[in-house]
Structure prediction request, 435 residues.
Amino acid sequence: MEKTVKIGLLGCGTVGGGVIIVLNENKEEIAKKAGCNIEIKTVLVRDKTKLKPEITKYNIGCTDNLDDILNDPEIDIVVELIGRVHPAKEYIEAAINHGKSVVTANKDVLADYGKSLFNLAAEKKVDFQFEGAVGGGIPIIRPLRACLAANKISSIMGIINGTTNYMLTKMSEEGLSYAQALAEAQAKGYAESDPTADVEGIDAARKIAVLASLAFNTALTLKDVHVEGIDNIEACDIEYARDLGYVVKLLGIAKNDPENGITANVYPVMLPKSHPLASVNDVYNAIYVNGDAVGDAMFLGRGAGRLPTASAVCGDIIDTVRNLNNHACGRISGNLFEKKKMCPPEKEMAPCYFRLLVTDRPGVLAAIASTFAAQQMSIASVIQKNVMENGMAELVIITNKVSKLSIDLSLRTLQVLPVVKDVCSVLRVEDPNLP
Ligand code: NDP
Ligand code: HSE
Prediction:
């Protein structure tokens, strides 16, 4: 094929390196599908000496000056893979302002500045694509923007962080400690450069903000998402969950209730073992969507890692090349976002699991039950676990559906109740069988 579309790649780390490998190793196949050759002309790096032989063997041009890419008229597409918000957002804007289409996997930028970047790309009539930003290699952005566009989406929930799902799997199945499991996830290239974003749920919160924005056609940002991570989960919570017929998963959950409004949460959830998301383990992610026409649909695959994410990024590159060749860039813009109502905390309902450390003596249960009753919280089951030698016991309580506001108010009372020594853990339970 004679024609070649040239790319400027920003960042050559885990995913950037993967994109170079996939575009080079599969180049004949890709050229046939794209209708022309695709070549990475220049890579922006901070330190050329860091490039590994697995990358330098492809003889790609290298620079530490962004202007070399922006001012190169041969480069039509900029692929941003440096991560974090700044200067990535400014680099993306500069590329679009130079008339270049942009592909990114950067959910940090999308969750804060998605709307303004969609609008800028629409104004400049270039593509702005980001399939790799959510769910690594799983196709979910394009399905939401295209295949499912005819639906009114009522909910979107999923395991959308590979690092934490890998950690929870290793902790529950192989008994690894939290620190060991995190170190393994980092070594495999799953974690963010700052892994606190993974374990504190921020990465998943950014992703659910992106998904909910597309699903509900409104611009949600990180600030609109209530976030709890897995950093307080203990091995005993995972064990108790197992005893009760549940597994613990970090879920992103966004719902659009026509009456009460939109909710967006990230928290560890107890999920019945029979739920389709319960068996999604290791680095796998899955996203479960409900639309009025399609019903339930689940998207499953590797949620992080070099080649799975490169697969999504390269898919976007090929799609952009096709649009360039057909003078059709900017076809799918995101600038139709409307302002929509967010659900107030007193209307946001879910069953809840409490693990309390209490004094093991008569009347304790009654004191706790009356705290819950005062907040209209109905108890589904109570189990006393681990009576200890020091006169303390662990109490596990599962409630029926309770509002987020009631949970917060009951916690304030429990924390000062003399018989309660510690509120060790509070987890939502996503169980349709609990009223
Ligand atoms: P890495 O940290 O592995 O790679 C980022 C690279 O960008 C590093 O080589 C870094 O260089 C370079 N870089 C950072 N800032 C600059 C700059 N200002 N100029 C030039 N180079 C710069 O990250 P990943 O590859 O893992 O992630 C890239 C993006 O993809 C992120 O947005 C991430 O959230 C996203 N993503 C990652 C996934 C994964 O599984 N890893 C999955 C899905 C999305 P240096 O080494 O000098 O710091
Ligand atoms: N750190 C992220 C994760 C990378 O573990 O899911 C993929 O977005």
Summary: The two ends are 62 Å apart (CA to CA). The chain is about 35% helix and 25% strand. The first strand starts at residue 4 and ends at 10. Residues 151 and 397 are 38 Å apart (CA to CA).
